[in-house]
Amino acid sequence: MPSFDTSIKADKTEVKNAVDQCSKEIRNRFDFKGTSAELNFIDEQLVCLGDSDFQLSQIKEILFNKCAKRNVDTRLLNLGEITKVSGEKVKQIITITNGIQIDDAKKIVKIVKSSKQKVQASIQGEVVRISGSKRDILQDTITLLKSEFKNLPLIFDNFRDWFNYNCLMKFSIDSFIP
């Protein structure tokens, strides 16, 4: 049966590249010279440091622009609370969302089942696997999910078409047998 996975995840390489570009711009910008403004990528989190709330907002604006240019969905970036560090300095932690929350996964399964299409949806950890009898039905399901969950940055990957895979395997095995 053909199937695909629905998930929420960021391309770590693109996020790291966006952070590197942002850090480079922070180092080179005139208004950040001589300040403690910086952006670090540490274990699925971005740590923003600045001298004031205004400077922190400038760093976040640069980050969001760089992420948008690198096709990283900014809805994946969850802003934490702004906390005071030593003196007048402020810090904000931005977490990167990976995986579908269990509540959202249940909503996806509910929408798929109520669509009356011949597909099955199952929650597998942070991923929802959807399988059906035909590829066209799965493509209709993808369209349905895109229209129903516009606020979630869903990614549809790991598409498998078992019929074509089995035919390909049989063809490749038969072609090597003398």
The whole-angstrom Rg is 22 Å
Q: What strand order characterises the main sheet? A: 6-7-1-8
Share of helical residues: 40-55%
Q: Secondary-structure element sequence?
A: EHEEHEEHEEHEH
Bulk shape: elongated
Characterize the main sheet.
Answer: 4 strands, antiparallel
Strand content: 25-35%
Mean pLDDT over the residues:
84
| Low-confidence runs | 167-172
End-to-end separation in angstroms reads 31 Å
What is the SS-derived class? alpha+beta
Q: Tally of extended strands?
A: 8
Number of helices: 5
Question: Care to describe what's here?
Answer:
The protein is α+β, with helices and mostly antiparallel strands. It is 43% helix and 28% strand. It is built from five helices and eight strands. Strands 6-7-1-8 form a four-stranded antiparallel β-sheet, covered by helices on one side. Strands 2-3-5-4 form a four-stranded antiparallel β-sheet. A hairpin with a 5-residue loop joins strand 4 and strand 5. It is elongated, with a radius of gyration of 22 Å. It starts with a strand and ends with a helix. About 3% of the residues have low confidence.
